[in-house]
Amino acid sequence: MNDNSLFGGIEAGGTKFVCMVGSGPKHIESRVRINTTSPGETLKNVIDFFRPYTKEKMVKAIGIGCFGPLDLNPDSKSNGYITSTPKPGWRNTDVAGILRRELKVNITMDTDVNAAALGEFNWGASKGNDPSLYLTIGTGIGGGYINKGKPLMGLLTPEMGHIHVPHDFNLDPFPGSCPFHKDCFEGLASGPAILSRFNVRGETISDDHPFWEIESAYIASALVDYILILSPRIIILGGGIMQRPILFPIIKRKVQEFLNGYVQSPILLENIDTYIVPPGLGNQSGVLGALALAQLIE
């Protein structure tokens, strides 16, 4: 890739769309934050931001890391659509198609968490580590797995937030908040699950509250499953809940406890602080990852 090439990136979230023109964290030409309102208004604002760049053919491609669920099947008539989202007004929105028709530029789309995983792999905490796993724990829980430099795609995109983790009802009688699975990982450990359980947001709960041991156990149980199945070389934990620093050491301790020496790797046994880490790109993992998605189709 020519160092002077420009690409577009869109971190498309339920609260905000972050749009960027550049080629990486050291070359950002322009950036804007757009509130997520109706699809028509939001996408018009996105188009207005990019049009000067696409009209003059300054941007070679645009990548979108988008909230979902998404249809990413290239053979599907609804490829590039947000599908059965609970976000009001956004169900069955042809995000990629609308932007492609209006901006007349190559568009590629993936999940928001796959984009963040790719951003971290290209420029952040997982650079040089293939395969790698990025997990976000916040409003929802999702994971992006990078293998051979690209996000994993199979029958569907991975839905790592909906695996089942051990749930001791005596210790945590909360039934779970997932509308599909009740007490799956997301139903027990996401931000909305904490709010439903305590009727307050997680950031208002003190560090010494016993719940954080329970929360850390749910996260560690999920990580052990991913380690055993996917064997990533590094795990990045992002999202709002992971802004609480006390969680990292508890999670690492519990991962080692749950593995119980079964995986005989020095990084897990002796150097776990360099194995389970926060994002290196901070809150820019998603939009920079969208830039990286655009570069994949170059």
Can you describe this structure in just a few lines?
With 298 residues, the protein is of the alpha/beta class. It has helices at residues 39-55, 95-103, 112-123, 185-189, 191-198, 211-230, 247-259, 266-269, 285-296; strands spanning 6-12, 16-24, 27-35, 59-66, 70-71, 81-82, 106-111, 132-137, 141-147, 150-151, 235-238, 276-277. It has 2 domains: 6-116 and 283-296, 2-Layer Sandwich (Nucleotidyltransferase, domain 5), CATH 3.30.420; 125-278, 2-Layer Sandwich (Nucleotidyltransferase, domain 5).
Number of alpha- plus pi-helical segments:
9
Q: Compute the separation of the termini in Å.
A: 8 Å
Total of domains: 2
Unreliable spans are none
Can you give a write-up of this model?
The strands form 3 sheets. A 5-stranded mixed beta sheet has the order 3-2-1-4-7, with helices on both faces. It has a 5-stranded mixed beta sheet with strand order 10-9-8-11-12. α1 packs parallel to α2 (95-103), α3 (112-123) packs across α9 (285-296) and α6 crosses α7 (247-259). 34% of the residues lie in helices and 21% in strands. It has 298 residues and is of the alpha/beta class. It has 2 domains: 6-116 and 283-296, Nucleotidyltransferase, domain 5 (2-Layer Sandwich); 125-278, ATPase, nucleotide binding domain (Nucleotidyltransferase, domain 5). It contains 9 helices and 12 strands. The longest helix is centred in the C-terminal third of the chain and has 20 residues, at 211-230. It has helices at 39-55, 95-103, 112-123, 185-189, 191-198, 211-230, 247-259, 266-269, 285-296, and strands at residues 6-12, 16-24, 27-35, 59-66, 70-71, 81-82, 106-111, 132-137, 141-147, 150-151, 235-238, 276-277. The mean pLDDT is 94.
